[in-house]
């Protein structure tokens, strides 16, 4: 049995009225770990467990680390998450409440990640937050669920960080015969690594990233995500931090679900569709979720972003 759950697919009256489109929501914010990440990470952890691994090691202080911790507890295996000093108390507490060991190390993520890699023994599996074919295969299950429901979208809107979610959505569309359905890939301006790569038609990295949408803060998307953007129709769209935050607040009021600014980025495009998106009528928005930002934090950012 998979570790993730089948999530609701629903037509959103408030978003449809706001956009003038027919907006459908895939509510992966309702996964037990609070984000879509459990789909791919759950599959990866189950696979590594079946290969005899006894412990999972992660270096994500965000939704990936929380999903690994959840998967480990569900499978009865140990989890160690190494996070940098900048990680919030809330994120550490969310990982610890899944009974995972949290090690705080280093000023930035690459230092925490280096320690995580150095801990790996023969019985350990390292779980990458976005760059592993098992993750994409697992994330693709959300599109299988949509296809089974009988609903076929004209376009899909998805947030992009390291591009694992985008790769999974494209894989899911491909394996359901929906390669012609365009994907709108949304990033915030301070972390627009896919937009940069697509503009240069090269798998480039940004020098730095700066955004309130911390789950999107990857300097470079995984190679597979870039390849998908060259192989099929992917429209890159960039929103401001303020737009992403406003969308979080509005979505909370409209749908009574709190999501991170990372997810707010995708919702921002749905609330205010671009001319390109307006060419389509039935639009599926992947509500990827995220648990690391409280409403107080989002409101504080809104006054300063
Ligand atoms: C990880 C994450 C993303 C981005 O996913 P990638 O696979 O890194 O592109 C978006 N939203 C939330 C809530 C996330 O946790």
What does the model show?
- It is built from 13 helices and ten strands.
- By secondary structure, it is an alpha/beta fold.
- The strands form two sheets. Strands 1-2-10-7-8-9 form a six-stranded mixed sheet, sandwiched between helices. The chain has a four-stranded parallel sheet with strand order 5-4-3-6.
- Helix 3 (63-75) links the parallel strand 3 and strand 4 (78-83).
- Helix 3 (63-75) runs parallel beside helix 4 (89-96), helix 7 crosses helix 8 and helix 11 packs across helix 12 (261-271).
- The longest helix is centred in the last third of the chain and has 15 residues, at 241-255.
- The N and C termini lie far apart (42 Å).
- The site of pyridoxal-5'-phosphate (PLP) has 22 residues, from helix 8 and helix 12.
- Its cofactor is pyridoxal 5'-phosphate.
- GO terms for molecular function: carbon-sulfur lyase activity; L-serine ammonia-lyase activity; pyridoxal phosphate binding; threonine deaminase activity.
- One of its GO terms (biological process) is L-threonine catabolic process.
The tally of beta strands, per DSSP, is 10
Class by SSE composition: alpha/beta
**Unreliable spans:** none
Taking the sheet with the most strands, its summary is:
6 strands, mixed
Give the neighbour order of strands across the main sheet: 1-2-10-7-8-9
Overall body shape: globular
Gyration radius, to the nearest Å?
18 Å
User: How far do the termini sit from each other?
Assistant: 42 Å
Helix content: 40-55%
Oligomer: single chain
Binned strand content: 15-25%
- Average pLDDT confidence is 97
What's the total helix number?
13
| Bound compounds | pyridoxal-5'-phosphate
Order of helices and strands: EHEHEHEHEHEHHEHEHHEHHEH
Catalytic activity: L-serine = pyruvate + NH4(+)
Domain Tryptophan synthase beta chain-like PALP: 5-289
GO molecular function: carbon-sulfur lyase activity; L-serine ammonia-lyase activity; pyridoxal phosphate binding; threonine deaminase activity
Protein name: L-serine ammonia-lyase
